[in-house]
Amino acid sequence: MARPTRPQVTIIDVAIAAGVSKSTASRVLAGRGSASSSAHQKVSAAAKKLGYTPNALAKAMKSGSSNTIGVVIPDLANPFFSTVMRGLSDAARTAGFEVIITNTDNDVDIEVRALALLDEKRVDGLVIAPVFQTGSEAIDTLRERGTPIVFFDRSGPSRNSTPVVSLDHLNASRLATDHLLDLGHERIAIVTEAGNDLESLREYRGDPGLLRPSSQRLVGYLAALAARGITADRELVIHAEYDRADAARQVRDRLENTRDITALYGTDSVLTSGAFLALLDLGVKYPDDLSFLGFDDQEWSTMVRPSVTVVSQPRYRLGATAATCLIERIRHPEAELDDIRLPAKLTIRDSTAQLVR
Amino acid sequence: MARPTRPQVTIIDVAIAAGVSKSTASRVLAGRGSASSSAHQKVSAAAKKLGYTPNALAKAMKSGSSNTIGVVIPDLANPFFSTVMRGLSDAARTAGFEVIITNTDNDVDIEVRALALLDEKRVDGLVIAPVFQTGSEAIDTLRERGTPIVFFDRSGPSRNSTPVVSLDHLNASRLATDHLLDLGHERIAIVTEAGNDLESLREYRGDPGLLRPSSQRLVGYLAALAARGITADRELVIHAEYDRADAARQVRDRLENTRDITALYGTDSVLTSGAFLALLDLGVKYPDDLSFLGFDDQEWSTMVRPSVTVVSQPRYRLGATAATCLIERIRHPEAELDDIRLPAKLTIRDSTAQLVR
DNA sequence: GTGAAAGCGCTAACAT
DNA sequence: ATGTTAGCGCTTTCAC
């Protein structure tokens, strides 16, 4: 049985059925302009009877705006981004915008292609968690043409006047480090993805927004220590790839070779998981042998015993904020918008404890 | 500094710059029809110089297809769906389709509105994880009009000839139950969201696709037991809301009041988390006191000790399959498509062990 | 091989 | 208040 594939009923069909011109039908259906109440009746009735559905494509053609925003993120399957996207979608939907999401896996070429595609779809604006690098021509081109853009989570060195919505990475990390310091810890090891030279970061006084999130978090750690007159020991900085297994390996190595570490701090969700696995491997009794503090609310941190103290990010709100910020920019292109850095929250559980000596 | 908002360069601009008609420009740019190599050169050069970007909206208007598919799911922030969506997006992208995702939170009204919106956007097809209920007028209307639709994860009683892509819920559950039976367990408690009467399910011989996933899983459990000549005991069926805390409460209650349970099986990710928390609360030593088996690969099941045996769903592949299935349907609307039920896999870890008596 | 012209569905002047 | 007309950017006959 061949599927009907009946063509969509258009505004013309409605107009004819209602016995009016298509402009009148349009006015009634769009609720703009004036129409007699009799016209109103007839058109509404005809539209309903025929099952008329407005064609958003045609509308977009005319108006030049598609009521769609494009999002470019590394990976939707990452729980952080999926919750962010839920917040972003909800906020966008509320404001009457649809969302198209594209994943880059942090690959520049894919990012370029994604931007081109979203551009072709004539999205009204873009939220981009850019692949961190010096200068993206693709983004610059869009920006020059006047496409509203908001950076998310990180900006990259080439941000120009584009606002960024992100966690306040630096202070989130201070929060974590301060908590451990408050408990009396001074030998706090940090697991980080940042490859920066420690010296350069220690003296960093520029805009933190120009650094990668991981570096910003490392700066926060250094700053918290410095504020108490402690100079971070190179031995306490554990570098690992953004990979659970590698983090586990690096942490295990360091813990086996450095005796006086009393606290361990993982600076993102993946590294935190890896570090925790190392603790299990080594049979470390936390918080007695070692206080442990992780990043990002992950379900497992509430399921293990003792449960794990973490720095929580307001994921949903980050997404929602990015959406409202972009929509603000779409509606008022002239207005200058400031960066928005949302604060993290410390969720204290049972893995961190007062240092007893 | 006022933003330029330079208007997009159109095919006409390119044509003029290249000194040809817009039809020729179109032919070259779209790579259809014939054009002299000199025209080719000139147009390509002009397009590049002007930074021409085709307008997908206009294309869609003409062609009637937007190369976009709409997806309706309960909640993108749910790790199951976010990974599914990653698979779906990747597969769709590969085939040249963009994806628009909408969340319903399992609310029928929101679902109806979401469908209307996607319809207005003139998506080429829809993947729907429907709110389970008897008959959705909104879906029927779309289907009658010939919109290609694929159900995902569940279908609902009103599926008609619409294919469904889902896990093979029933056999997934048999797999789990059989594993426990193989280990010698017979008093296997099951945590389920299904509210069905046990008798009716025990004798159910209809199309499992007509049941909710939770019921299908309960049927699988019953079938596995029946195959070994065991009649499921009503006392072993722990009903809980789709809520971690409630599951924890119900499991705690039952475990405290029923002495001879030797294995516990959670039938979805949320209920499994709750059940596990109850075990922790009660101080149950698994797998010695009790074998524990969960559903869905969640990170925590690998982070706790002993680690937890689970039934894993091929999330990414489920999503990718839904996409290819829908695209198949879009390209060949006449073809009848069968349901696709992907098999689950048992991931055996340390929480299940041979029953010693 | 190339151009002129029509039209996808809709809205917005502009007339009436 | 309502109809006429033009046009958004593109593709596609149809002549030439």
The overall strand count of chain A is 12
Q: Oligomer, anyone?
A: homodimer
What count of helical segments of chain A does DSSP give? Answer: 14
* Distance between the ends of chain A: 81 Å
Question: What would you say this structure looks like, in words?
Answer:
The structure is a homodimer of 357-residue chains. Chain A has 357 residues and is of the alpha/beta class. In chain A, 45% of the residues lie in helices and 14% in strands. In chain A, helix 2 crosses helix 3. A six-stranded parallel sheet of chain A has the order 2-1-3-4-5-11, sandwiched between helices. The first copy, chain A, is elongated, with a radius of gyration of 26 Å. The relative contact order of chain A is 0.12. The model of chain A has no long low-confidence stretch (mean pLDDT 94). In chain A, strand 8, helix 12 and strand 9 form a beta-alpha-beta unit. Chain A has three domains: 44 residues, no CATH class; 133 residues, Response regulator (Rossmann fold); 145 residues, Response regulator (Rossmann fold, 3-Layer(aba) Sandwich), CATH 3.40.50.2300. Chains A and B meet through helix 4, helix 5, strand 2, helix 6 and helix 12 of A and helix 4, helix 5, strand 2, helix 6 and helix 12 of B. The structure holds a DNA duplex (16 and 16 nucleotides).
